[in-house]
Give the backbone structure.
Amino acid sequence: MTLKILYGIQGTGNGHIARTRALLPALKNKDVEIDFVFSGRPEKDFFDMQGYGNYRVFRGLTLIYNRGRLEIMETLLANNLFTFIGDVISLNTTNYDLVISDFEPITAWSARLKGKPCVGLSHQCAFEHDVPKAQGYWGSKLIMKIFAPAKTKIGFHYDHFNQPVLPPLVSATVKAQEPSGKILVYMGFEAVEDIVSFLSGFTSIRFEVFAKVDKRQERGHITINPLSVDGFHQQLAACDGVISNAGFELSSECLVYGKKLLVKPLSGQYEQLCNVAALEMMGRATTMNSLDREVLKEWLTRPTERPIIFPKVADALANWIVNPDRGDVETLAKTIWGEYQSLAINDDGLIG
C-alpha cells in the first residue's frame, strides 16, 4: 500500500533542503507519494528545485539577519502570526498517512492540530538530548522546542555523544579530488562586499565565493559565483578548505570530505553556537566571532583534515519511515551507528 507523505522543509537557509536531497533517493525507492511544502523565504529565492514536483511555498516563520547578526525587531515585523495560523488551519492533511517536518512549522503545527502522525527530522531535534550546547540562550531553547513540534523526533549530529541521534545525512555527490589550492567561501548571511573586503589582502590565494548574485564575477583572486547545488559541490570536492557560517549541513559535508573549516557563527544564533561548541570539542574547526583577517591568516597555514567516514543513514532511515511498525528512535540510532567509535567521547565516557 502506497504511503502518502506530506514533507515540510524549512527554507530559511539551504541546510534543511540539502539534508532532504540526501534522503530523497532512498525514500523515492519505496512505495511512497510525497508532496512538499517549503516556508521561510520567498518562492523566487529557491533554486535548483528539480525533483520536488509541484511543491508549495508558504510564508511561514523566519529569522532576519543583517551582515551576520540576528535582527530581533526586523524578525518580529517580518513574521505575521495571523497569516501563519491561517496557513496552519487551511493546510489540507486529510489525504496523507504521515507528515514529516524538517523544522518546518506549518506542516508540524497542522499535524499537531489535526491529529496526524508527524516525524520531525532535523538537526534541531538533536538538542532534545544531552549534546554539546552553548550556555544560556533560554529563549532560543524554548523557541527551538516549540517551533516545529512533532510526536516523534529524530535528530542528526556530528557524533552520537552517547545519545539517540543519527549521523549527518549528507550526500557527497562528487568524489573528493586532488586539492586545487582554492578556498571555498559560503557565508549566506554576510554582505558580499564585507566578504570581499575580508579576503582582499590574501592575493596569493584563490577564493571561490558562492553568494546571491545574478552572474559570475571575477575580482582578481576572488571569484563570486551564483548559487548552484552542482557547482558548489564541484568546488567543495576540490578545495583546500572552507570558510562559512556555522550551519550544520555544510560543516558536516566538510567533515565527510576532510576539509579544514573556518567558521563564523551568526551572532546570537543558538544552533550555530552549539555547532561551534561541538566542532571545537572534536578539534574540527577554527572559530572567529568577526571577519578577522588575523584568524584567517593563521588558519590558511593549517594542514588539511582527514575525512570522517560516517555510517550510512539514508536507506536505514527510509526503511524506518515506511515501516508501519516503526521501532523506537534509540534502537534505530544504535543500529545505524553500529560499532562506530565516538570522535568526541573516550572509553571512560569523558570528552577527549
User: Anything to note?
Assistant: The radius of gyration is 20 Å. The chain is about 35% helix and 20% strand.
